[in-house]
UniProtKB/TrEMBL annotation:
Pfam family, one: 4HBT
Protein keywords: Hydrolase
Domain of life: Bacteria
Record's protein name: PaaI family thioesterase
Keyword Transcription regulation: no
Species per Swiss-Prot/TrEMBL record: Algoriphagus pacificus
Domain Thioesterase: 55-129
Family assignment from sequence similarity: Belongs to the thioesterase PaaI family.
Length: 148
């Protein structure tokens, strides 16, 4: 069985549409970098990701942040699957249809039961669209029991 890090390393520069996350597959991001403490994903803002004002919906931005943090946490080498227990998001600028966004997330602290992450979504100009922090908690599900 491949390690979770090997699984995702093989997906660098590919569309993320066949991952274990159905919601993340809908986002169709492109994985650019991944390690045990970092991830970078690019997303193209599509019409179905937008609110009636035709700008990126805050719920979709939150999904991008939560899903990327989840992917990155998946490869940290933990024995047990972890799940988010909170996601704090600040929306700082809008993003329009057709824009490519870069999401980066970094592991700030790894503990025995909790991992703390921080993430940022930026436009190509460098302007911050949203930033987030999230805590992931250990579940009872062993990573080796997952069929990947």
């Amino acid at each position: 069985m491949s390690s979770p890090l090997q699984l995702f390393t093989n997906l660098i520069d590919q569309k993320l549409d066949k991952t274990p996350s159905a919601a993340g597959n809908w986002l169709s991001g492109v994985l650019k970098e991944i390690s045990e403490k970092h991830i970078k994903v690019h997303y193209l803002v599509r019409p179905e990701m937008c609110n009636p004002a035709k700008i990126l919906h805050g719920g979709v931005a939150s999904l991008m942040l939560d899903d990327a943090i989840g992917m990155a946490n998946f490869v940290t080498g933990t024995e047990f699957l972890m799940t988010s227990i909170n996601l704090n998001v600040d929306f700082l600028a809008s993003a329009q249809i057709g824009e490519t966004l870069e999401l980066t997330a970094n592991l700030v602290r790894s503990g025995s039961n909790l991992n703390h992450w921080e993430a940022v979504i930026k436009k190509e100009s460098g302007k911050i669209v949203a930033k987030a922090s999230s805590n992931m908690i250990k579940t009872h599900i062993k990573m080796n029991d997952l069929k990947l």
